[in-house]
Specification:
By secondary structure, this protein is α/β, with parallel strands linked by helices. The protein has helices spanning 47-58, 76-84, 115-123, 150-161, 190-195, 210-213, 228-232, 234-239, 253-262, 286-299, 305-313, 315-322, 329-341, 347-356, 361-364, 377-388, 396-403, 412-427, 433-452, and strands at 2-8, 11-17, 28-29, 33-37, 69-70, 106-110, 129-135, 165-171, 177-178, 201-205, 244-245. The longest helix is centred in the C-terminal third of the chain and has 20 residues, at 433-452.
Length: 453
């Protein structure tokens, strides 16, 4: 794979040129050019930042056996880091130095506007600069999506009103691939990389909670040091002078929900990416179903049984409960147990609680301290102090419970609960399927009309 980089005032363009042997697993490359709106003049972005940005746009179509080249030369230090981390071979190595860490830098946050992203901003230093990647359809694009980016833009406006720096970067990078979406999980960092020099950044942060960074949402603990954040891409970002910073890696979604519930900045948080505006989530997607439970568990104000069950009956949401393990199972199990302890009467949530087993309350509301040891040293103390205002440190026993978490082992009681859950779902099919189809058609029509305008 070769990528040409063109930087003109206000815009950076990457042109992907596949070569023989470049393939993708499950992702088809349907467009070859993508651009980002950027601040700063040409020449103000370090070459290594451009090379990594190009790589994150092209990653699905880059094989480890095939060299990756870029029209911008990379430093020898970056080439070594790419070889050590994602194990890719860079060509076009220049003689220039690697990017130096700014003497008086500040962290950058890849900002989505969701609960976890806002919680991360709360515990990061006040000097943090956030970057939001805004989807923009290229001219002539006819593919529609259910995603609605207006709420996230409104979230950025709220964050600005609270005195934080935010840069919104429009891009059509999600349209490179089919199915439509980010080429790589870390492509959301490209806006940050392209502004790292002009904004003097010295760390790259994401709002990934305990369940994601330690893979508990997949049913079994995996050490953070083995995650792509650290093991694969950690050396690459370090070579850019931007060490990885995951400030909420040690706390669960229960804690991040409590943070946005208690902190004034919480008004900027909305995890639903389908709702038409901030404060108005769609109420039908799996995220809405889970966040409804989390909000109720934190606030103590529970919706009616009918409302809860109606959300989880929908086609997408029900699959999260029927899968093995359930997606983000620790959170679902905890919320179900909290609901039952407060005399909730939903038969569905009783089955969810039975399937998930005992409530891991003790560690879900606390901070897993080993995660803090991997924060950049210059920010570790401040982030730790801020985080402990919302979540006390776990005990040694609780940390051991996190490391021992595993619901992938077959158990008779779990199998019985799964059978009952399946029977309940059969007896309660998705609600108003034809209405949902009509609404989806309307959303796609509005999206198409908006692009034409």
């Amino acid at each position: 794979m070769h990528v040409d980089v063109e930087h003109e005032p206000g815009r950076l363009t990457f042109t992907l040129k596949p070569e023989a042997g470049d393939v993708a697993t499950g992702r088809e490359l349907v467009r070859h050019t993508t651009s980002f709106v950027v601040d700063g003049d040409p020449g103000q972005v370090h070459p290594d930042l451009l090379v990594v940005s190009a790589l994150l746009c092209a990653r699905p179509w880059v094989r480890r056996a095939t060299p990756f080249s870029c029209s911008v030369p990379a430093s020898a230090e970056l080439a070594a880091a790419v070889r050590a981390g994602p194990r890719l071979i860079l060509t076009n190595i220049g003689t220039g130095p690697a990017r130096a860490v700014p003497a008086r830098g500040r962290p950058g946050l890849c900002f989505s506007g969701g609960t976890d992203s806002v919680a991360a901003l709360v515990v990061l230093p006040d000097t943090t600069h956030s970057y939001h990647l805004r989807r923009r359809a290229p001219e002539g694009e006819r593919r529609a999506t259910m995603m609605d980016g207006r709420a996230a833009i409104q979230s950025c406006e709220v964050v600005r009103r609270h005195g934080y720096a935010v840069t919104v970067v429009p891009s059509d990078v999600e349209y490179l691939a089919h199915p439509l979406g980010f080429p790589h999980d870390l492509t959301t960092a490209v806006p940050l990389l392209l502004h790292a020099d002009v904004d003097q950044l010295d760390a790259v942060a994401w709002g990934a909670p305990l369940e994601a960074t330690y893979r508990l949402q997949r049913g079994r603990f995996r050490d953070y040091v083995d995650s792509p954040f650290v093991a694969e891409w950690g050396p690459v970002f370090a070579a850019l002078g931007l060490p990885v910073c995951i400030p909420i890696a040690g706390v669960s979604e229960v804690v991040t929900s409590a943070i946005v519930h208690r902190h004034p900045l919480g008004e900027a948080a909305q995890s639903c990416v389908r709702g038409p505006r901030l404060g108005r989530p769609c109420g039908r997607c799996p995220k809405c179903a889970r966040k409804t439970l989390l909000t109720a568990a934190v606030s103590g104000r529970w919706p009616t049984d009918r409302v809860l069950e109606r959300q989880w009956r929908d086609t997408e949401a029900r699959q999260h409960l029927l899968s093995e393990p359930m997606k983000v199972e620790p959170v679902l199990g905890h919320c179900a147990h909290r609901y039952l302890s407060e005399r909730g009467g939903s038969a569905l949530l009783r089955l969810v609680a039975a399937k998930s087993g005992p409530d891991p309350l003790e560690w879900l509301t606390r901070s897993y301290e080993p995660s803090l040891e991997l924060l950049p040293l210059r920010y570790r103390t401040e982030i730790t102090e801020r985080l402990h205002r919302f979540a006390a440190a776990m005990s040694i026993r609780e940390e051991a419970a996190v490391r021992g978490y595993d619901v992938t082992v077959p158990a008779p009681s779990r199998a019985a609960a799964q059978e009952e859950l399946q029977s309940w779902m059969i007896a309660h099919p998705p609600r108003d399927s034809w209405r949902r189809a009509v609404r989806k058609g309307r959303r796609e029509a509005r999206a198409l009309l908006g692009r034409r305008r």
